[in-house]
Amino acid sequence: xxxxxxxxxxxxxxxxxxxxxxxxxxxxxxxxxxxxxxxxxxxxxxxxxxxxxxxxxxxxxxxxxxxxxxxxxxxxxxxxxxxxxxxxxxxxxxxxxxxxxxxxxxxxxxxxxxxxxxxxxxxxxxxxxxxxxxxxxxxxxxxxxxxxxxxxxxxxxxxxxxxxxxxxxxxxxxxxxxxxxxxxxxxxxxxxxxxxxxxxxxxxxxx
Length: 207
What we know:
alpha/beta, Rossmann fold, 8-stranded mixed β-sheet, 8 strands, 24% helix, globular, disordered N terminus, Methyltransf_Superfamily, methyltransferase, SAM-dependent_MTases_sf
């Protein structure tokens, strides 16, 4: 890993705690509002869905909703919670998504789930999202911000805003927008490092 890029990554955690709160993060609320006109026609993939915190907010608004997580225990809990709904759940790995190319209009990876893998695997996740998302589709995710390096947790990936932008463009994403996770406000000037937010949300389009 290139130390000049000032990335920090420790050994991956075996298990990652899932948020129990049913409410959306402020940035998620902002993004949901901005996509509300498009959502009814979208096929959505919700990566690292956990217990379904985001399911209850996004799934009723889209045409088709598919959740994916790597935990069998999560699968059982999720299926029990959403029994009787048309929503779908699959066991899987974001690095090797079990879907055909150009399947989804919207891919969401919330709660910094993309930070649970190392640098090389992060690139694989981005390429897989790019592959399964349709041209002009939307990718939304959150990630830890290296501006808050003093507050980072072991075994998570942190990077500068400028690095994240470069990584997304290299992977085939465009029209990238960043939002504060804590306030939901958009970071207007992406040419400069953002204020010290603990993590950031990104909304971008598939090139």
